[in-house]
């Protein structure tokens, strides 16, 4: 499980750490649509929502599936340009110009990602040229609501008109709330990009990628980056490059653009440190499985209050020593208990801090 990026033959100078106002605007729209994902932004969301023009708020709902339920690659448009080495623009206007350079076929395919009707990391025809995919896209859009269906119908009937609508909408969002936010955020994001670039130059891709997120690992021998996510995907840099783009409003989301034929992008959260040694998806699964057993749940109730030896647990639970040891082994493998020796006795105790974090860790693992 996870997203894999084949970087065989990729030269370090083709890894770029850059900021993107368009990508951050996408994250801003997501935070406004899904504030529960971003409790740290509650004050900002409340302030923006309170002063938002009702007409603009209504337009925001017309295509919110581009940023609410999926993170549309339209906000990383530079990755879809020919050559797969383009960088984001320095301003939102420049990035919107890059968005305009995508073909109608690319634009429609990316905009309809929310319907899940199209292959993502495999080559294939799109709904503009395939009547079957067109019908399927409309069916799936209808299942998501009348507004989604209306947008999809307009998009398929007249892509240029829908593209003009989206550009004007994004410009209006910039004027209404994003320009002010970006004037503050761009300095923080630029500082993070400089730090990662410095690590890349001085210590190489491994150190730079490790600083992006503990969920990102590099196997230099295999020439492969693995991003620990609850999902599967594969892409390759080929003769193109790799983009690392920091986000402040997007925390805790770690996004990987792995669309077929596009430049791979890691869109990573910046601005605040991660918890020490955050668990992997595999560790989360181990912990949830370990705690799902009724015997281990009862054992944890005792171990949360005090440290016990195996013999004491045998007496308390009326089980054999091998049975208790087996349950302790599962809890220990999941990182839920600690052990310490006192003379000839080995004491076991629940790591309450780890268990307390499980709720937020599980949510963060899902959102990653």
Give the strand content.
Answer: 5-15%
- Average pLDDT number: 90
- Straight-line distance between termini: 13 Å
Q: Compute the gyration radius: what is it? A: 24 Å
Low-pLDDT runs? none
**Count of runs of 4 or more consecutive helical residues:** 14
* Secondary structure category: alpha/beta
Shape: elongated
Largest sheet: 4 strands, mixed
Quaternary structure annotation: single chain
How many beta strands in the DSSP annotation?
A: 10
Order of helices and strands: EEHHHHHHHHHEEEEEEHHHHEEH
User: Strand order, biggest sheet?
Assistant: 3-4-1-5
- Specify the helix fraction band: 40-55%
Features:
14 helices, 4-stranded mixed sheet, 13% strand, 10 strands, elongated, alpha/beta, single chain, 50% helix, 368 residues
Structure description:
A four-stranded mixed sheet has the order 3-4-1-5, with helices on one face. The protein has a four-stranded mixed sheet with strand order 2-6-8-7. The chain has a two-stranded antiparallel sheet with strand order 9-10. Helix content is 50%, strand content 13%. The chain is built from 14 helices and ten strands. With 368 residues, the protein is of the alpha/beta class. It has helices spanning 21-33, 42-51, 54-62, 92-100, 104-111, 131-143, 146-157, 159-203, 205-212, 281-291, 294-303, 310-317, 321-333, 352-367; strands at residues 2-6, 15-17, 216-219, 224-227, 232-236, 242-247, 255-257, 265-269, 337-342, 345-350. Strand 9 and strand 10 form a beta hairpin. The mean pLDDT is 90. Helix 8 (159-203) packs across helix 9.
């Amino acid at each position: 499980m996870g997203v894999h990026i084949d970087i065989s033959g990729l030269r370090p100078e083709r890894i770029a750490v850059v900021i993107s106002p368009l990508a951050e605007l996408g994250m801003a729209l997501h935070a406004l649509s899904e504030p529960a994902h971003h409790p740290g932004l509650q004050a900002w969301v409340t302030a923006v929502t309170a002063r938002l023009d009702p007409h603009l708020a209504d337009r925001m709902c017309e295509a919110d599936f581009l940023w609410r339920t999926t993170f549309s690659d339209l906000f990383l448009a530079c990755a879809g340009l020919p050559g797969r080495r383009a960088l984001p623009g320095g301003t939102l206007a420049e990035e919107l110009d890059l968005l305009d350079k995508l073909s109608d076929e690319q634009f429609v395919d990316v905009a309809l990602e929310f319907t899940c009707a199209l292959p993502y990391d495999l080559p294939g025809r799109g709904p503009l040229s395939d009547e079957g995919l067109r019908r399927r896209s409309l069916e799936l859009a209808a299942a998501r609501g009348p507004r989604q269906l209306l947008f999809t119908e307009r998009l398929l009937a007249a892509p240029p008109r829908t593209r003009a609508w989206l550009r004007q909408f994004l410009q209006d969002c910039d004027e209404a709330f994003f320009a002010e936010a970006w004037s503050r955020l761009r300095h923080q994001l630029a500082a993070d990009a400089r730090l990662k670039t410095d690590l890349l130059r001085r210590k190489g891709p491994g150190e730079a990628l490790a600083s992006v997120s503990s969920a990102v690992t590099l196997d230099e021998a295999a020439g492969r980056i693995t991003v620990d996510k609850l999902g599967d995907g594969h892409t390759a840099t080929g003769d193109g490059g790799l983009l690392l783009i920091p986000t402040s409003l997007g925390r805790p989301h770690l996004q990987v653009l792995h669309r077929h034929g596009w430049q791979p992008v890691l869109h990573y959260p910046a601005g605040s440190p991660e918890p020490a040694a955050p668990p992997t998806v595999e560790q989360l699964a181990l912990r949830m499985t370990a705690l799902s057993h009724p015997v281990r749940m009862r054992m944890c109730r005792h171990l949360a209050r005090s440290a016990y030896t195996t013999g004491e647990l045998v007496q308390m639970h009326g089980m054999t020593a091998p049975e208790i040891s087996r349950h302790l082994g599962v809890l220990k493998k999941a990182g839920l208990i600690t052990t310490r020796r006192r003379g000839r006795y080995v004491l076991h105790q629940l790591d309450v801090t780890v268990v307390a974090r499980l709720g937020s860790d599980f949510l963060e693992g899902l959102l990653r």
